[in-house]
Design brief:
This protein is an alpha+beta fold. The protein has 8 helices and 11 strands. 27% of the residues lie in helices and 27% in strands. α3 (82-91) packs across α8. Pfam families: NLPC_P60 (PF00877), Prok-JAB (PF14464).
């Protein structure tokens, strides 16, 4: 479920962040009286300029009413840090980030590495969509049918322009690009190029993983796609997750 924030909630969060411009603020979105409310908490971290910590007493006080964790990044990094991602996965909650006078909502997606494969819910497209989400780019939802049938219909290539992708030559490959690999003449697998000769992908029957863009994959690459909204800094968000997961 996507967490939608009202303008009043955004103003409350940004006002709290503006009051403490040199330290990370924190708090909860809680369900009260039939709706969401922002409840600021004291940042008890040893160095609140760089980290945040919410006291156990606050977690206990709000309990099951907590719908999201809120904090800010005074240094301006518009992504969840590696430590943020570890904690977010542990809480299984949306996290809201106040940064650069804007509010960003991050779904509680699993870590990018180590996922089990389930076509349609945890597959190569799901992995890429979640990586892009962490980077601040929302890809379209794609309803899948049967895996071989979808591949035979060139599902990704058909929907890629609608999702904001355009095709580029392999010779211009750069971090953030999506590689389509083909089997029996049909593109049936997608990988995220991480740069430095490495890819992130989720193959059928395997755990999602980071590995070299080897000759095996290069020989099977059918096309390369670049998203119009991808920027060089976006890879920081993906790297933050990869560094801190097993």
């Amino acid at each position: 479920m996507i967490l939608e924030l009202s303008d009043s909630l955004k103003r409350a969060i940004l006002s709290h962040a503006a009051f403490f411009p040199k330290r990370e603020i924190c708090g909860f979105l809680v369900f009260e009286n039939g709706g969401l409310a922002y409840r600021p908490c004291l940042n008890t971290a040893a160095d609140p300029r760089k980290n945040f910590e919410i006291a156990p007493e606050d977690w206990l006080h709000y309990g099951d009413a907590v719908r999201a964790v809120v904090h800010s990044h005074p240094d301006g990094e518009p992504f969840l840090s590696g430590a943020d991602r570890q904690a977010q996965v542990a809480t299984a909650l949306p996290w809201v980030l106040a940064v650069r006078r804007r509010v960003r909502v991050f779904r509680p997606v699993p870590h990018l590495r180590g996922r089990e494969f389930f076509y349609g819910t945890a597959d190569c497209y799901s992995l890429i969509a979640d990586a892009y989400h962490l980077a601040g780019i929302e890809l379209i939802a794609v309803e899948r049918g049967e895996m071989d049938t979808d591949a035979a219909q060139n599902l990704f290539e058909t929907l890629a322009p609608k999702a904001g992708f355009y095709r580029v030559p392999l010779t211009s490959l750069r971090a953030g690009d999506v590689l389509l690999t083909a089997h029996n003449g049909h593109a049936n697998h997608a990988m995220l190029y991480l740069g430095g000769g490495e890819v992130l992908h989720h193959a059928y029957g395997q755990l999602s993983r980071r590995e070299p863009y080897s000759d095996f994959w290069q020989q099977r690459t059918a096309s390369v796609w670049r998203h119009r909204d991808w920027r060089d800094g976006c890879m920081v968000a993906v790297g933050n997750d990869l560094i801190h997961c097993v």
